[in-house]
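Late entry, coproporphyrinogen III complex.
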Amino acid sequence: MMRACRREPVERTPVWLMRQAGRYLPEYRRIRAQVGFLELCKNPALSAEVMIATVDRLGVDAAIIFSDLLPILEPMGMQLEFLAGEGPVIHNPIREPADVHRLLELDRLDSLGFVMDCVRATRASLDDGIPLIGFAGAPFTLASYCIEGGSSRAWLHTKSLMYTHPSAWHDLMDRLARAVSGYLLAQLDAGAQIVQLFDSWVGCLAPEDYRRFVLPHTRTALAAAAARAPVIHFATGNPALLPLLREAGGSVIGIDWRVELAEAWHTVGYDRAVQGNLDPAVLLSDRDTVRQRTLDVLEQAAGRPGHIFNLGHGVLPQTPVENVLELIATVKGFRLNPPAPASL
Ligand code: CP3
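Prediction complete; structure with ligand written out below:
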């Protein structure tokens, strides 16, 4: 995994999955029957155990800390709750320019100590050869939660604030970017070897708006971590943003399934590694289809060093576990250039 991040040759393509620990796993559902989701995130020993058990069960090549994008917003003044069946809700959203000051500076990370404890606990129990990925939400995706107050399909409150009040928007994004930058560094200090930035909702923007309203802030969020470790920069929904994601930063660019991997890599440039990009819904089909579609993605990488196999977005809760295992076995069994047979 570390070599692939640096585009060095590897004996096989590394694989891990976004949302690899989650509701599709019966053992995760058993734990969640006892503990609320935020409570689980705030219990470093238990959240580390959830991820270690998942890595052992799946045999993946990387672990990501078990946490979420949104807990960073609590010490910044947002009232966060995860409602069963609905997902995250923020009870005091930011809607007007005058609300932006309510998003507090995150100058001390003590209040997120449980995340750094989770990094330490996971790293301590993880096999030496398996890197641990820390992560954060990107400024745009975090801003959209602060403004919408939860998940959204059209991001109209977010776009209204952005277009109507650009200086309040930049103030909000700057607060988030500096918080994320410090948060990623703290995870590296605690022992994460890689960090991933999730810009899950930024695909709703046109490229020129990304350039103007998002790119400078994402660059701020990533720069300090990028000087110390591989950074995976992931977004979904709009392949036209790929050249701009590259410009904003990241030694690895995460690719969703709406573009072919070969084309995406050509657009991003071969001087960056790529991660992706099987449609998570393929895992709802049968094992033969999973195997074939996994091979299709592997072949698109054309043996170039610097491909990390992943889905184009997180594992869906309805996914059969045996299809996930089939995917992983397919990636691990794949050799583009098989080594010459040993002479007798
Ligand atoms: O990848 C992993 O296994 C590690 C853990 C992880 C979670 N969330 C656990 C989680 C990671 C890396 C995330 C990131 C995250 N969280 C993202 C970015 C990835 C993406 O999907 O785009 C986003 C947008 C969130 C915000 C979030 N968290 C939503 C919208 C929801 C509710 C919808 C859903 O899919 O459940 C969550 C809850 C959440 N985060 C769960 C898990 C395991 C389910 C909680 C439960 O047990 O009910």
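The longest strand covers residues 132-137. Will revisit in the morning.
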